[in-house]
Amino acid sequence: MEIQALSTGSVHLKDSFLFARKGPLRQPALFAPGAFTGPYPIHAWIVEHEGTRILVDTGETGAARDIPFAKFDVPAAEELDSALRSLDLKPADIDTVILTHMHGDHMDGAVHLGDTPVQVSEAELAYSHSVTSRFFQRVLRQPIPDGVRFEPVPLDGPAFGAFAASRPLTEDGRILAVATPGHTPGHLSVLCIDDEGNHVLLAGDATDSLEQLRARRADAVGPKPRVYVETIDRILAHAREHPTVFLPSHDRDSVERLSARTTL
């Protein structure tokens, strides 16, 4: 099994996003003036196993509009098609595409995939069409990209380790989607059991960093902080039973942890 990172630009995040307030000002603080950090990477991932290539997330595009709590820097040379070419790949070489969730910096790059279907959890796809989600898509000018074939995938398999629901993505079950709700209601992560037996968790925005995981801190975007922290606790519980390499999409150290197989 081979796992490789794709860099699709970077994002500067507001402090109030990464270090969310508690109480009723948690989300309004995102829209108030405040300092920005950054830059943080926007990673997607390629997993190759037994002749199958799986793309986890598709990154952002240069057309991304800044929002009150995130400023994007995505050169054309770092969009998904170029990132794939850097690995001598093209979209037609990808067998399966799956999203951790339907935020722009994880799904917008799918415009480079043509008719290739893009899998997303049933709960996430349903939420993306809810009144609340459509309102923020309009206000933040972050629409669902046109021309992408989103296909709902149920996480209808049994619990896997500490994760309450799963779905195998390969016949041997060494790559599977697991439920990690919190950042969005239908957020999933992709868990890969590598050749050394490590559980490599491609975690999307389950947290933004390893520091946030260890602090057991919800971000300011997730609609239910309690659910967010429950997922963090599941990840930590899983890591107590299995050697787990934790790779959030925006963590500056994820690529180094992947290379060294540094476990929690």
> Helix tally?
8
**CATH architecture tag:** 4-Layer Sandwich
Query: Rg, please?
Result: 17 Å
Structure class: alpha/beta
What is the 3D shape? globular
The sequence of SSEs as H and E is EHEEEHEHEHHEEEEEHHEH
Main β sheet profile: 5 strands, mixed
Q: Uncertain regions: pLDDT < 50 for 5+ in a row?
A: none
Mean pLDDT level = 95
CATH superfamily: Ribonuclease Z/Hydroxyacylglutathione hydrolase-like
**Total number of strands:** 12
Give the % helix. 10-25%
Could you say how many structural domains there are in total?
1
Question: Class, according to the CATH hierarchy?
Answer: Alpha Beta
Order of strands, widest sheet: 4-1-2-3-5
What does this structure look like?
The chain is 23% helix and 25% strand. The chain has eight helices and twelve strands. It has helices at residues 15-18, 80-85, 104-107, 122-128, 131-139, 210-215, 225-241, 254-260, and strands spanning 2-13, 40-49, 52-56, 70-73, 96-98, 118-121, 150-153, 166-168, 175-179, 188-193, 199-204, 244-248. The strands form three sheets. It has a five-stranded mixed beta sheet. The chain has a five-stranded mixed beta sheet with strand order 8-9-10-11-12, with helices on both faces. The longest helix has 17 residues, at 225-241.
